[in-house]
């Protein structure tokens, strides 16, 4: 299972999400898109998921806070209790024992981030 996790600001557009996604997904195709639950139904994110035909997984903030991220944003740490919403969302969505394939990649407009995580079949 490969999950693409996203973090994004209120002003992020589908283009912002696409740019971050393209930067993170050069060598892998995710099966699910994930973000913190209060952003999961944001119009731009929902449209982005629909265009790709991928399901959205909403991750509660307390689950995000349990994930160990590689990169750290002070804003993410203060608001969500994690160093990276994108990395934590990807790890949580991929499942127990998941590992990052890519650290968060930032869109050119700095409004969205995307990271990939994988849980390999056992």
From TrEMBL:
Under what name is this protein listed? Precorrin methylase
Species in which this protein is naturally found: Roseobacter cerasinus
Cross-referenced Pfam families, in alphabetical order?
CbiG_C (PF01890)
Domain of life, per lineage: Bacteria
Q: Does the keyword Transferase apply?
A: yes
| Chain ranges of the CobE/GbiG C-terminal domain | 2-117
Q: Which PANTHER family match?
A: COBALT-PRECORRIN-5A HYDROLASE (PTHR37477:SF1)
Question: From its record, what is one biological process in GO terms?
Answer: methylation
Spell out the Gene3D superfamilies in the cross-references: CobE/GbiG C-terminal domain
The answer to whether keyword Methyltransferase applies is yes
Q: Which GO terms describe its molecular function?
A: methyltransferase activity
Which keywords annotate this record? Methyltransferase, Transferase
């Amino acid at each position: 299972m490969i999950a693409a996790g996203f973090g994004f600001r209120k002003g992020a557009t589908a283009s912002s999400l696409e740019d971050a996604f393209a930067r993170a997904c050069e060598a892998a195709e995710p099966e699910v898109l994930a973000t913190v639950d209060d952003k999961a139904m944001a119009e731009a994110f929902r449209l982005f998921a629909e265009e790709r035909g991928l399901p959205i997984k909403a991750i509660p903030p307390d689950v995000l806070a349990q994930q160990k991220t590689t990169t750290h944003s002070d804003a993410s740490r203060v608001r969500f209790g994690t160093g990276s919403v994108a990395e934590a969302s990807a790890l949580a969505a991929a499942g127990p024992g998941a590992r990052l394939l890519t650290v968060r990649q930032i869109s050119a407009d700095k409004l969205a981030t995307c990271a990939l995580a994988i849980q390999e079949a056992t």
